[in-house]
Design brief:
mainly alpha; 13 helices; globular
């Protein structure tokens, strides 16, 4: 039974990353007619509505302290992570952001080491992280070997994986209280949208639904709302509950690999030998880190 749960956790994490790794295509298309904060708000609003339709049962917390867990998860995993990442893209290169955000598994492991039982930091995980990060840097540079530093944008980019690490630890804590996975994800979305409201007044936001008349806009927003938000946050949160925050976070290494594959298959972009090498190193590093966390999980 335990082995089956572990297998399900890996399958859910892999499914989530496969979808998240292709979201850049939809976002790129939507950015023609929508601002980043508009895309963010509409996709999570759509995701929230869908989750209500799927599961409308109440999520009863035992105390205000437990309610704070959901509030903090919504603030970190929905509002801050995506806003900080989008704002960082304004001030620095996308390749910089892609590389920096990929340290999320390492930061998650550090936080889990101090705040979660049975998820200690080990040398093999760090070794795998180093190899995977080398590969991710090569993918980000794409053979140009030029890394332009932009202090403000890069600093904001570092904040994104930091708040995602906090979100991962919070969701692991929430999952241990045996809440309904869809119900708890819906509660997180609610607080994420609530904390997002002030940003709608700070950044350019228009409630112009006429833009959805374009099939490209409608289909891509549905993909982000139904797939990347409603479905993926449920499957990711469930995977965190089954595998733990550290073991699940290792799958984040695969995002740039999937992005490269999607670029080749969908956008017909050319892959360089440097990108190919980076992809191989990223896969190797993730396998090394995953191998250690599996051993720890089975002995816990």
């Amino acid at each position: 039974m335990e082995e089956r749960k572990t297998t399900n956790g890996h399958l859910l994490a892999l499914l989530t990353i496969l979808i998240w790794g292709t979201t850049f295509i939809s976002t790129k298309i939507l950015l023609i007619d929508f601002t980043p904060v508009e895309i963010l708000f509409f996709r999570f609003l759509l995701g929230y509505v869908v989750l209500i339709l799927i599961y409308s049962g109440p999520v009863r917390t035992a105390s205000f302290r437990e309610e704070l867990l959901f509030m903090a998860a919504g603030l970190c995993g929905v509002t801050l992570y995506f806003l900080v990442e989008n704002i960082a893209l304004v001030y620095t290169l996308a390749s910089n952001v892609g590389v920096i955000v990929s340290i999320a598994p390492f930061l998650t492991a550090v936080l889990a080491h101090f705040f979660l039982e049975g998820e200690k930091l080990h040398r093999q995980f760090l070794f795998g992280f180093g190899i995977a990060l080398t590969g991710i840097v090569l993918i980000g540079l794409n053979g140009s070997f030029i890394l332009k530093l932009n202090p403000l944008g890069d600093l904001l980019a570092f904040l994104a994986p930091a708040v995602w690490a906090v979100y991962s630890v919070l969701m692991r804590t929430i999952s241990q209280r045996n809440y309904h996975t869809i119900g708890s994800t819906r509660r997180v979305f609610f607080y994420g949208l609530l904390f997002m409201i002030p940003a709608l007044f700070l950044f350019e936001f228009h409630l112009d639904l006429g833009r959805l008349g374009k099939m490209a806009n409608l289909s891509n927003l549905l993909f982000l709302g139904l797939g990347a938000s409603a479905l993926c946050f449920v499957t990711w949160n469930r995977a965190v509950g089954l595998l733990g925050a550290v073991q699940t976070s290792v799958y984040i290494y695969l995002v740039p690999v999937i992005t490269v594959a999607a670029s080749v298959l969908i956008l017909q972009e050319q892959i360089t030998w440097v990108t190919g090498l980076g992809t191989g190193l990223t896969l190797l590093g993730s396998l090394i880190s995953e191998g250690k966390t599996k051993k720890v999980a089975s002995s816990a």
